[in-house]
Design brief:
This protein has four helices and no strands. By secondary structure, it is mostly helical. It is globular and about 45 Å long. The N and C termini lie far apart (44 Å).
Amino acid sequence: MHFHHPKRAFLLLAGLLLIGILAGLAYWTSLEPLWAYWISVSCVTFGAYGYDKRQSRRNGGRVPEAVLHILALAGGTPAAAIGQILFRHKTRKLQFRIVFFLILFAQLGVLVLYCLYGRA
């Protein structure tokens, strides 16, 4: 597997970090698996936004926008929103914001449907 594409490299790194944090939470805490996953994906997402902002200031290798959206889609939307606000990052890119809000509204819609109809 070649990593000439930054998207693949960053997705692999994000996946490994997610697994590492999740394994640590599972081993050292008694969190429910869903909470452990959400905390893990939130940490990775927030870190990706912070790293990307740092790299943007240094003109270094950036985290592809698709990776940031995938992390939000995977459950890191609250951390992505906090990262955008705290780091003042990706707040002016209209196309990025549109995709982000589509992800956010889709997730809110699923949550509302679950709350209304999904509980037994």
